[in-house]
Amino acid sequence: MLFKQQALLRQKLFVLGSLAIGSLLYLVARVGSLDRLQPLCPIDGRFGPHAQDEIPLRALQFKRGLLHEFRKGNATKEQIRLHNLVQQLPKAIIIGVRKGGTRALLEMLNLHPAVVKASQEIHFFDNDENYAKGIEWYRKKMPFSYPHQITIEKSPAYFITEEVPERIYKMNSSIKLLIIVREPTTRAISDYTQVLEGKERKNKTYYKFEKLAIDPNTCEVNTKYKAVRTSIYTKHLERWLKYFPIEQFHIVDGDRLITEPLPELQLVEKFLNLPPRISQYNLYFNATRGFYCLRFNIVFNKCLAGSKGRIHPEVDTSVITKLRKFFHPFNQKFYQITGRTFNWP
Ligand code: A3P
């Protein structure tokens, strides 16, 4: 009798277990199919409990589903009309600084359901040939989005190019401008490392950083060297301030975005008047990469390309000291203008 009962119990447990595993597999399969335009969207939880209050659910599906198809050029005119999709001029631009972490910032902001990124650097305002093609050409370079979403693009060359502030002002005088900065000497070395890698790829030789950054005649910092000039943030910002008030800029701490991205992203959400939707769930530290990577949902995550986070060559400490001393007064001015202080040496 007891044996019979045990066998029955085992049978019941087996059926229940199979049902549980089956349901789990079904759920995983449905979430996995999000990218293939399935109407299910269980991922809204990743944006917190209020996600659906302000951001339509379809926007979340769209982020990893339809949007992907539209980007690949697979959308029909009918689909675009049906979903009321538009190519909008950017409401915010990451104008620089090169090697500040511009790609990481753009990709991380793109985690937000109300943000749609332009994948490529468009170089509309800094490239005369592109600029001559007109604003419609620029708009057509933008990704499709729902009208309630905002488009963001990044072209780091904008920050240092003379003509850009006026050109952007002419397009939209109330646009929001994001600048991501890093400790100026580290940024200059990162800039150098990128150029060096390009030369090495072409089997070309290149100067050592020390030789470029220090003028051999005067033994002073070589202000003609582009990587040095780009790191004089205040000089460039002052040009922008002739067109835009400081309130239209938000400064992102690129060094903190590397080590602790979430609080930096939350400041940007606030600046862009977006509801807080990016959470710790969306960012996970990948020990192999040595950086935070992005998690869109349980099946889709990605790290930035290997070209982000290069190993820098070792630089003579006396050169580093000289550069830091050189940048110091410019940094002070930058803190004063922006109201954001960094612990740069
Ligand atoms: P390094 O290559 O010097 O480490 P940009 O996108 O403007 O070119 O900036 C590149 C820098 O972004 C990299 O510089 C890297 O340090 C930084 N970065 C910030 N967050 C990152 C992330 N999550 N993954 C990879 N790189 C990141």
- Indicate the percent of residues in helices: 40-55%
**CATH hierarchy class name:** Alpha Beta
Secondary-structure element sequence? Answer: HHHHHEEHEHHEEHEHHHHEHHEEEH
Strand content: 5-15%
The shape, in one word, is globular
Could you say which small molecules are bound to this protein?
Answer: adenosine-3'-5'-diphosphate
- According to CATH, the homologous superfamily is P-loop containing nucleotide triphosphate hydrolases
Query: Which blocks of ≥5 consecutive residues have pLDDT under 50?
Result: 25-61
What's the total helix number?
16
Number of domains: 1
The number of E-state strands comes to 10
**Structural class from helices and strands?**
alpha/beta
Largest sheet: 5 strands, parallel
Strand ordering within the main sheet: 3-5-2-6-7
Radius of gyration: 25 Å
N→C terminal distance: 81 Å
For the residues shown, what is the average pLDDT? 86
* Overall CATH architecture: 3-Layer(aba) Sandwich
